């Protein structure tokens, strides 16, 4: 979905992580020719930005330093990030601010619903920061945003990209009960990299979360994604695919990790387009309904078009 032209020195780069700033600078590999994005300068981009600002909303497109913001915002596609701009975790790959978040905005569900209508979104993606400070991890707020958005935009399909709700009993049930069309929760990386890349999370908890979605609602589409280039082995990526298929996940995304600042985890390698194609072929052979694997693949990039293909794939399989 979304944001920066150069993840180290581009217009959206900003060092906002006190705890990350204490890390020594990590090496920065030169980007290969296939990592290319357009600068965000179009009229469509400006209009999307105006609507987002007008409603006082936050987007993961801007906050997380996504490379596709120019393309997505030109089409008036934006991914809303609810529950504030401050995360309670400090993942080594992420450019979102870490710290003590503000109180929830009770008006946010209606703001998201209104912005969805004004942007004319046929498919909306809603994500959030981690809110470990809340008793339910923000699950009730997530559900309220889904319900308000659907009430205002009954023809719009809704995709959520949620945190793991670690140690928040009943949280997942609340979100699933609100009936999003797609439930996405990203693994982000292979298990061996969790301690250095995603230390606040637990790999098998995330796998179990995705499995539970299918147990609660077998017809709900589930989705997950990982980044590559963090030092993982190919065999580890293939094992992640098997774990996700065991959990019944329908849609897999694989994209290249890009280092937001020199204080973040270094890029260990740039995976070639041919290697991404090979991952895509293997994933389809393992039974995923949909696979998106490319250097600039992100969870929300082309989400609307991908959802249409996802539904068509299920019908083609007789599901």
Describe what you observe in this structure.
The relative contact order is 0.15. Helix content is 37%, strand content 13%. By secondary structure, it is of the alpha/beta class.
- Shape label: globular
CATH topology group? TIM Barrel
> Roughly how many Å apart are the termini?
29 Å
Which CATH C-level class is it? Alpha Beta
CATH architecture, by name, is Alpha-Beta Barrel
In DSSP terms, counting alpha (H) and pi (I) runs of 4 or more, how many helices? Answer: 12
The radius of gyration is 18 Å
Instruction: Tell me the domain tally.
Output: 1
Q: Please report the total strand number as a whole number.
A: 9
Report the portion of residues in β strands. Answer: 5-15%
Identify the CATH homologous superfamily: Aldolase class I
H and E string: HHHHEEEHEHEHEHHEHEHEH
Estimated structural class: alpha/beta
**Helical coverage, percent range:** 25-40%
The average pLDDT score comes to 85
């Amino acid at each position: 979905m979304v944001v920066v032209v150069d993840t180290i020195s581009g217009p959206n780069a900003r060092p906002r992580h006190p705890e990350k700033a204490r890390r020594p600078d990590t090496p920065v590999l030169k980007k290969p020719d296939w990592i290319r994005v357009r600068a965000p300068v179009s009229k469509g981009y400006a209009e999307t930005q105006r609507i987002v600002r007008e409603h006082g909303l936050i987007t993961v497109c801007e906050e997380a330093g996504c490379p596709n913001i120019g393309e997505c915002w030109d089409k008036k596609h934006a991914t809303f990030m609810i529950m504030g701009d401050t995360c309670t975790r400090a993942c080594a790959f992420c450019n979102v601010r870490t710290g003590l978040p503000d109180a929830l905005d009770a008006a946010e569900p209606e703001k998201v619903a209104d912005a969805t209508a004004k942007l004319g979104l046929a498919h909306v993606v809603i994500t959030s920061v981690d809110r470990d400070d809340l008793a339910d991890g923000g699950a009730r707020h997530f559900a309220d945003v889904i319900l308000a958005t659907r009430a205002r935009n009954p023809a719009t399909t809704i995709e959520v990209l949620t945190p793991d709700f670690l140690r928040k009993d009943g949280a997942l049930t609340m979100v699933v009960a609100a009936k999003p069309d797609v439930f996405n929760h990203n693994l982000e990386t292979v298990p061996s990299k969790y301690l250095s890349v995603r230390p606040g999370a637990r790999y098998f908890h995330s796998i179990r979360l995705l499995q539970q979605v299918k147990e609660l609602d077998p017809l709900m589409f589930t989705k997950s994604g990982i980044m590559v280039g963090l030092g993982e082995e190919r065999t580890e990526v293939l094992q992640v695919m098997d774990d996700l298929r065991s959990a019944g996940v329908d849609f897999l995304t694989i994209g290249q990790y890009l280092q937001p600042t020199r204080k973040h985890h270094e890029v260990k390698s740039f995976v070639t387009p041919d290697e991404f194609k090979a991952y895509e072929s293997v994933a389809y052979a393992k039974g995923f309904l949909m696979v998106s694997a490319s250097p600039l693949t992100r969870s929300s990039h082309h989400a609307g078009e991908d959802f249409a293909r996802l539904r068509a794939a299920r019908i083609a399989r007789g599901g």
